[in-house]
Design brief:
Largest sheet of chain A: 8 strands, antiparallel
CATH architecture of the largest domain in chain A: 2-Layer Sandwich
Number of helices of chain A: 15
Distance between the termini of chain A: 31 Å
Radius of gyration of chain B: 20 Å
Number of strands of chain A: 19
CATH class of the largest domain in chain A: Alpha Beta
Distance between the termini of chain B: 47 Å
CATH topology of the largest domain in chain B: Rossmann fold
Shape of chain A: globular
Number of domains of chain A: 3
Number of domains of chain B: 3
Order of helices and strands of chain B: HHHHHHHEEHEHEHEHEHEHHEHEH
Largest interface: A-B, 28 and 24 residues
Number of strands of chain B: 9
CATH class of the largest domain in chain B: Alpha Beta
Structural class of chain B: alpha/beta
Radius of gyration of chain A: 22 Å
Number of helices of chain B: 16
CATH architecture of the largest domain in chain B: 3-Layer(aba) Sandwich
Strand content of chain A: 15-25%
Largest sheet of chain B: 5 strands, mixed
Oligomer: heterodimer
CATH topology of the largest domain in chain A: Uridine Diphospho-n-acetylenolpyruvylglucosamine Reductase, domain 3
Chain lengths: 462, 337
């Protein structure tokens, strides 16, 4: 490997390549529960050309390459399962362009969510992007690659629906532009009216190419933003409540959570609604419409809007929200992992009961949390467990609970979101064989030497 | 189990029916009012049990000491007539549950009680409180639980209040100054109405503030502002203390505007109305209330209850009226804010 390291050093410079054990230790794991696996080396490129050279070198030597954003997926997607080279994208963090009038930005593949948010607030205060609730260091490209969701997901779908083009380094080392940018200087569409080729990359976790640039759609940032929480003790009523709320088309984002602690949240399901406006009149009109949409549930005493204390309100209005970090330390020891299948909203009651059953069975701290995708088209239901990293037994119980979630999610008609390597295999076993075959053909064509993040979406192994 | 001291004859012979005639939310004449209260007293059905919005005011309107609001609450509980959505009720019951997270200052014979409103800890600073602080009590273990009459859950009060009183007893306090008048009302009036013995002297913080301001009179610089006062629902449980609002304001040079919805005619902040009945009732009452403040030239809205303040402060501020708690107003008058 020393020769490879030296070759990489010639590409990126000595300071940006390492095979030292301390770095290998760090890049061998993510914050979740997946077992670690060390890379042979780590490289931190600064340009597309450097990535091209790295990939060409890897292809020549048949060495795996694993592109990495902030490594926050929790499901081991950037753990180098077969060793090789981890390509840490963090130095490629420039915002290349913001087109105010066409409402999009073009950013490099390592740009973080927090950086784009801060940049827009400073230079383009009327624009925003769909920021997820992961830590601000999470990268935009990685979030899109896993079909992440964010603050605008109820309105516009997955964050991967909110892009307007890609630049990708293929397994051959070639650079390829996807979308209108393939033939125009303007990145206004990720596909239409051309064939939409983004599907060759998104959801593949780097197994078909490395995103080096991404066009991100931007949306109006209103002057005001507020939050309300509607609560109910009947999980079976939640889908109907969400249906009414999405019918108003006035809600920015809908998150639902149920958890036993603190006591204020015990026993109830909390539908958190965010809404925005430019004037007091617009805000009040939206508030009134949103409240009225749930009147029948209030009249029947099946639910009501709780008073949101000021401290809770400011926490909820934070973007990204930090409450997840606090939840991660409920059991002390900083462990947190969730399985978040994408599933129909009418499965909310089944999911809510399942997490209760598992928390009891495995004696775990939990939070059930859902984010509505589109106008009630689907939801991400997060089965989140918190554990103490210094307690191997608790970690094992968490693993078992999450495995049961995986089985349950598939049986309930759900699809794994950012699935672990094992979940990917489970999904492919259940998948329509023709679809699996098509995926196999794509993977073989896109990555003939099997060097791109191997261990993920290995269709041929089914 | 403790039971309410209620005498149906008092209602049957009532010449005014004030408890319901004066209600801001039901509109009844004297005969209907008396007839409905008698029905409630007999344990019969009455539309009042469904329509009452739990503003507490009838407890004050009744000058014959017969506790109409407590009775309505008892009967609603008896008949399982929900005032609030189940989830809201459950949530409030949960948050009042003792969790061992109480905080005590250097408690001596006299102490301040914050209920479980943590904001008070940072509010009770300066000269006004120097002769009692740091003797304070905070937490669910010392929370009066009276809020559950909003939810027709007197059983919770009857179950928890004796334990709370016992917790106070264990501290050996002789006088407790309550910073929320729901707690004051609980120990000064509600507990006796249910025959529960209270082993200390409850003092309303308005009485305390008035005394301290009198002692610190030399420090007072009249504020010369026109203020509206937002009276909280729970002050109806201790209307004998309400005169201190005017007394304090006169002492610190605040002109209390003579508006429609003040004193006996005060309107609810709308917090409970929104949670229990939805947008329209809460919005209409809030609008009427704030329009009234504005029409009478209020520059500030003075709050007694932090929950009312939390509900209304943004709405009054939007109208150019400065929201302020009574404690802050008093501290401002002696140059501390």
């Amino acid at each position: 490997m020393t020769d490879i390291v030296q070759s990489l050093a010639r590409i990126v410079g000595d300071a940006y390549v390492s095979d030292r054990p301390e770095e290998a230790y760090f890049y061998a794991r993510d914050p979740g529960l997946m077992p670690p696996h060390k890379p042979d080396c780590v490289v931190v490129p600064k340009s597309v050309e450097e990535i091209q050279e790295i990939v060409r070198l890897a292809a020549r030597e048949k060495i795996p390459v694993v592109p990495m954003g902030a490594g926050l997926a929790l499901t081991g997607l950037v753990i180098p399962l077969r060793g090789g080279i981890v390509i840490d994208m963090k130095r490629m963090n420039r915002i290349l362009k913001v087109d105010e009038m066409a409402r999009h930005a073009i950013v490099e593949g390592g740009t973080s969510q927090g950086y784009l948010k801060a940049y827009l607030e400073k230079h383009h205060p009327r624009l925003r992007h769909s920021i997820p609730d992961s830590p601000a260091t999470a990268t935009i490209a990685a979030n899109v690659m896993i079909h992440g969701q964010g603050r605008l997901t109820q309105q516009y779908g997955f964050n991967s629906d909110m892009i307007c083009g890609l630049e990708v380094v293929l397994a051959s080392g070639e650079v390829c532009r996807i979308g209108s940018g393939a033939l125009s200087p303007d990145w206004f569409s990720k596909g239409p009216p051309l064939p939409d080729l983004t599907g060759l990359f998104l959801g593949w976790f780097g197994a078909t190419g490395i995103i080096t640039k991404i066009g991100v759609k931007l949306y109006p940032r209103k002057k005001m933003r507020d939050v309300e929480i509607f609560i109910t003790d009947r999980d079976s009523l939640v889908p109907g409540m969400v249906y009414e709320l999405t019918h108003t088309e006035m809600v920015e984002d809908i998150n639902i959570f149920a958890q036993p602690k603190p006591m204020i949240f015990k026993d109830n399901h909390h539908i958190t609604l965010f809404y925005t406006g430019d004037t007091e009149e617009e805000m009040e009109f939206k508030r009134k419409t949103i409240w009225h949409s749930l009147d029948r549930f209030i009249r029947s005493k099946d639910g009501g809007f709780m008073g949101v204390p000021p401290a809770m309100k400011s926490t909820l209005l934070d973007m990204p929200q930090r409450s997840v970090s606090r939840f991660a330390d409920v059991k002390k020891g900083g462990g947190f992992e969730y399985s978040g299948p994408i599933i129909m909203v009418d499965k909310y009651p089944a999911c809510a009961r399942k997490i209760l059953e598992l928390a009891e069975k495995y004696d775990l701290g939990y939070s059930g949390m859902a984010r509505i995708i589109g106008r009630s088209h689907a939801m991400m239901y997060g089965f989140a467990f918190t554990f103490n990293r210094a307690d191997p037994d608790m970690m094992e119980r968490t693993r078992q609970a999450l495995h049961e979630v995986s089985v349950f999610a598939l049986e309930a008609g759900g699809v794994f979101w950012k699935g672990t390597a094992d979940e990917q295999k489970m999904a492919m076993q259940k998948m329509d064989p023709a679809t699996r075959g098509l995926m196999g053909m794509i993977k073989k064509q896109m990555d003939p030497h099997g060097i791109m993040n191997p261990g993920n979406w290995e269709v041929t192994e089914v | 189990m403790y039971s309410l001291k209620f005498d149906i004859n008092v209602c049957q012979t009532c010449p005014t029916g004030d408890c319901l005639v004066k209600c801001q939310y039901l509109h009844l004449d004297r005969d209907t009012a008396v007839a409905e209260m008698v029905k409630i007293g007999k344990g019969e059905d009455s539309f009042v049990l469904n329509d009452c919005v739990t503003c507490y005011a009838c407890e004050e309107y009744c000058r014959r000491g017969n506790h109409p609001f407590y009775l309505i609450t008892e009967q609603r509980q008896e008949k399982r007539i929900l005032t609030a959505p189940r989830a809201i009720t459950r949530q409030w019951i949960n948050i009042g549950e003792p969790q061992g997270k109480y905080r005590l200052g250097e408690v001596n014979k006299r102490a301040l009680s914050f209920g479980f409103m943590p904001e008070f800890l940072s509010w009770v600073e300066g000269r006004l409180f120097e002769d009692v602080m740091p003797s304070y009590i905070f937490g669910q273990e010392f929370f009066c639980n009276v809020v559950y009459i909003h939810f027709a859950e007197t059983n919770i009060i009857k179950e928890r209040l004796p334990r709370v009183i016992d917790n106070f007893r264990k501290l050996g306090v002789r006088e407790v100054i309550f910073l929320h008048d729901e707690c004051y009302g609980a120990f000064a009036h509600l507990a006796p109405a249910y025959g529960i013995e209270v082993p200390f002297k409850p003092i309303h913080y308005y009485e305390y503030l008035y005394r301290r301001l009198t002692e610190l009179k030399d420090l007072i610089r009249p504020l010369n502002i026109r203020a509206a006062y937002q009276r909280p629902c729970s002050s109806r449980l201790s209307s004998d203390q309400h005169h201190f609002v005017r007394d304090i304001m006169e002492l610190i040079g605040v002109h209390l505007v003579e508006r429609t919805y003040q004193d006996e005619n005060a309107l609810c902040c709308g917090g409970i109305l929104g949670m229990n009945y939805g947008y329209d009732l809460a919005h209409e009452v809030q609008q009427r209330n704030i329009d009234d403040m504005k029409a009478h030239g209020a520059e500030a809205c003075i709050f007694n209850c932090p929950a009312c303040q939390s509900t209304l402060e943004r709405l009054v501020a939007k109208q150019g009226i400065e929201p302020m708690h009574m404690i802050h107003l008093c501290r401002k008058a002696i140059g501390e804010m």
